[in-house]
Amino acid sequence: MKEKITLFWMRRDLRLEDNTALYYACQNEENVLPVFIFDSQILDELEDKKDARVEFILQELQKVNQSLQDNGSSILTKIGKPVEVFKTLIEQYDIQNVYTNRDYEPYAISRDKAVEKLLKDQKIDFFDFKDQVIFEKDEILNESGSFYKVYTPYKNTWLQKFNANPPSLHQVNFKKLYQTDPQDLPELKELGFEATDIQLPALEIDKELIKAYDQNRDIPALDHTSRLGIHLRFGTISVRKLALEVKKLNEVFLSELIWREFFMMILYHNPQVIEESFKSKYDQIPWRNNEEEFYKWCEGQTGYPIVDAGMRELNQTGHMHNRVRMIVASFLTKHLLIDWRWGEAYFAKKLLDYELASNNGNWQWAAGTGTDAQPYFRIFNPSSQVKKFDKDLKYIKKWVKEYGSDQYPDPIVDHKMARERALKTYKSALEK
């Protein structure tokens, strides 16, 4: 006799506290068994086998597993393609239902549809829930009933709904968990990866930092960023808990969470933005795509110290300061006229807090091709940015050790010439 269980499929929600799908599974079912699948289709696409994000997932799963074991349960981990894994699980257990939290990326949507079809063919129900956002899909619409294309009115409607009906936190009933012997997690090498020396950000809501966020967020030497991006990305923190907390502390920080949801909504309604410009007319831009210049940008060898400092910080830590992200993206797309998709792909490989919707949205914003983007004729002057945000050169000297010496390279492009070239190129393309 196969044991009757309900599966809670954990993905981008690596926590037990205030987990929507887990809450409803434990409210409605008996013998709830958490399962996590290391999706081989995702892992196989990661070129660098020293990817700290895989380490982070394993680290957080260890914490989840320990908490489950404290409640007499454990997490079941599998490696493979989700549909194939579920076929095996159906053979092993008498699965009553499957509960999970929704994901809005195109691959995740198609994956979930395939799993749901498999389950329904076996008379197993598939229940999914909103968890990684406050508002999803069509919950924030304009007066004409369509999605917002401009951030500020989206934000205003978001705040109005949030303040009128603040989210509540879910208290999970752990007594409904399936009681099982402790299950081992795979080793990093079993997944095909190696350990890194990158320091993973701890989960900490620094209230004092958040209170002063609007005053300090643009000064890279202070590094007054929360480092919560990776925790939001993998759901080790509840976005409801975080939003309720920061609402009391700092409006500007809360607006960053709203930007995150704005870009998720844009991606959900416009999956084509992964490959195309949100504003299709910008697909006419004849990018130069000089590979040598792109390589120098990647390595932090452009001769523009604020750009180089940012890229070196990214390469060494998996993190880059928010203000500097805008500067390096503007430099690549405007000064070098290199396709924003090249920069987006590089960030996707390197950023610990990489999230498809935000990465795509921010790169298209910088390039002028996206929804509510900065106009193409707004081109950051890297030297002016240094004077504004790193006038004492603390950030630059931290990451560009040879700055000021003969070893530091000359600028790979002249700012004035590059600016005029970008303006001419964009203008000409749009006139066509």
TrEMBL record:
- Give the source lineage, highest ranks first: Bacteria, Pseudomonadati, Bacteroidota, Cytophagia, Cytophagales
Instruction: Give the superkingdom in one word.
Output: Bacteria
InterPro entries, A to Z: Crypto/Photolyase_FAD-like_sf, Crypto/Photolyase_N_sf, Cryptochr/Photolyase_FAD-bd, Cryptochrome/DNA_photolyase_1, DNA_photolyase_1_CS_C, DNA_photolyase_N, Rossmann-like_a/b/a_fold
What organism does the record attribute this protein to?
Echinicola arenosa
What is the name listed in the Swiss-Prot or TrEMBL entry for this protein? Deoxyribodipyrimidine photo-lyase
- Kindly state which keywords UniProt assigns to this record, in alphabetical order: Chromophore, FAD, Flavoprotein
Q: Which cofactor does it need?
A: FAD; (6R)-5,10-methylene-5,6,7,8-tetrahydrofolate
The family assignment reads:
Belongs to the DNA photolyase family.
Q: Can the keyword Flavoprotein be found in this entry's annotation?
A: yes
Where in the numbering of this chain does the Photolyase/cryptochrome alpha/beta domain appear? 4-134
